[in-house]
């Protein structure tokens, strides 16, 4: 059996992830499965832990499992992407858990662990990821990235003390609704240039642009219903020219993908995407704020082996060539 390492964010969902880990650890002990566990101490620490684990692995195939939310998974992905000998798993312990929704990971920690233990014995399943170049930095996302109003809301919500309090009360979504309403009437709409595979699209009065690798974001909103992490493509959603009140209405419909019926919501697909506007827009990557536009995004086809349920439709996986981002 490959060595299994767990990286746990004890702060995810305001400490709920510790309860998740306690259940997982008990199951591992009951099943007599050897493992090593590391707890993150601060933002960015999961990525550092990945590097130190891999250094000691001497090139042997290992499994690194993130226990937490989408931010923790994002950090682990950004750590493992440079190494060929790591397979990544996930046990949901966060607030939004869009990764597990999009990649069909069970919500129940024990079921998620059992899935990992079953899949370890099978052939590796590779998924696409997105690579962002902003300035001299690079960042990877596994679920989605967004520029504009949504990134501003997620930046303010994640840094507010209110998130912790509402998390404890099981009312996490309310913090996003609060910051959405707070910014709704003051947000300055932008003219945004989106270049997809060399073709320039100009969008006026734009609220936000998201680039998705799987359908879900923002804690269960089906922003990009057609997005697939197997097709070598990224799905672009642009929301523009909506009145402030209508934006609220459209926002609610995203939970059941009703927004696809509005002409103000545009859907495009591509492999290489550039986003820029005259005034920079805030940017999030898998729900974590990383800075502002301009930026370039590239789809990296089948570069990341992950432990998840089998793909429903194998034909979805198209063989593309020379699209490896490493
Ligand atoms: N020990 C720690 N103390 C404080 N923050 C941490 C710690 N470890 C990790 N973090 C940061 O906590 C943030 C939130 O983590 P994560 O996204 O996993 O949980 P969440 O916000 O509850 O879930 P979700 O993103 O699914 O809504 C991330 O930015 C992560 O880097």
Automatic annotation (TrEMBL):
Task: Please tell me which top-level EC class this enzyme sits in.
Answer: transferase
Looking at the keywords, is Lipid biosynthesis present?
yes
Q: Could you tell me the EC number(s) of this protein?
A: 2.7.1.-
SMART domains according to UniProt: DAGKc
* Organism superkingdom: Bacteria
Record-annotated DAGKc domain positions: 1-136
Cofactor(s) annotated in UniProt: Mg(2+)
Which Pfam families does this UniProt record tie to the protein? DAGK_cat, YegS_C
Q: Which InterPro entries match?
A: ATP-NAD_kinase_N (IPR017438), Diacylglycerol/lipid_kinase (IPR005218), Diacylglycerol_kinase_cat_dom (IPR001206), Lipid_Phosphate_FormReg (IPR050187), NAD/diacylglycerol_kinase_sf (IPR016064), YegS/DAGK_C (IPR045540)
For this protein, the record's Gene3D superfamilies field holds: 2.60.200.40, Probable inorganic polyphosphate/atp-NAD kinase, domain 1
The family annotation for this protein states:
Belongs to the diacylglycerol/lipid kinase family.
Listed name of the protein: Diacylglycerol/lipid kinase family protein
Q: Give the originating organism.
A: Cytobacillus spartinae
Lineage at the top is: Bacteria, Bacillati, Bacillota, Bacilli, Bacillales
